[in-house]
UniProtKB/TrEMBL annotation:
PROSITE patterns the UniProt entry points to: HTH_TETR_2 (PS50977)
InterPro entries cross-referenced by the UniProt entry: Homeodomain-like_sf, HTH-type_TetR-like_transc_reg, HTH_TetR
Protein name in the entry: TetR/AcrR family transcriptional regulator
Low complexity biased stretches: 7-17
Disordered as annotated region, ranges: 1-20
Lineage, uppermost ranks: Bacteria, Bacillati, Actinomycetota, Actinomycetes, Mycobacteriales
Length: 206
């Protein structure tokens, strides 16, 4: 989840507990930050606001994240890890136990569900990465999951390319633009994702 900021812990039998406490406190701060963003939008997330919402001193927030940019990047990482845990270990249909096509449909809808809240934050981070975002761990974790599900179906063709094609409509920049212009709603985009997935599967015998 990234480094824990603070003084170096001495190598004693108490060290694992201290590290565990620091990680747990960091997670609580990120959960509080996520609540703020969902309630009031990204602009409302300041170091002062997070400290007040979490009931801690502002210095604690600065020690954990350095500045607001560090907080935003940590929050994106936190959000990504929660989503990954949901599709890897959570209940079906997003998690294991459902047919692959149903898991693909659930993946797209779940990915879209929070994008109107977190999309501005994610789009800002992605725009600064350029093409590097497609070689980084977050994107490739999602791609690997899509590839795994496609390989559980009779789909033929270039599986990595098909995974990229399926991920493209979920791009935060594209979705935010579609929402901003009023062209589509999240539900319509999710319905389109489902149609693409289900049309791909029947063409290969599903």
């Amino acid at each position: 989840m990234g480094p824990v900021f603070g003084p170096t812990t001495p190598l004693t039998t108490a060290a694992p507990t201290e590290r565990s406490d620091a990680a747990r406190n960091r997670q609580l701060l990120l959960d509080a930050a996520q609540q703020l963003v969902r309630a009031d939008g990204v602009d409302a997330l300041t170091m002062d606001a997070l400290a007040k919402h979490a009931g801690v001193g502002k210095g604690t927030v600065f020690r954990r994240f350095g500045n607001r940019a560090g907080l935003l990047h940590a929050l994106l990482d936190h959000s990504d890890r929660k989503f990954q845990a949901a599709f890897m270990f959570g209940p079906p249909p997003l998690g294991p136990g459902a047919p692959p096509v149903e898991r693909l449909v659930a993946f797209g809808r779940a990915r879209l569900s929070g994008i109107d809240i977190e999309g501005a934050m994610r789009r800002s981070a992605e725009s600064g990465e350029g093409g590097a975002r497609y070689t980084g761990a977050p994107y490739n974790t999602l791609k690997a999951h899509i590839m795994m599900l496609l390989r559980e179906t009779p789909v033929h063709g270039d599986i990595p390319l098909l995974a990229d094609i399926l991920l493209a409509p979920l791009d935060s920049g594209l979705v935010m633009a579609q929402l901003a212009t009023g062209s589509y709603t999240i539900e319509q985009i999710g319905d389109a994702w489902e149609r693409v997935v289900r049309e791909l599967a029947p063409a290969t015998g599903q």
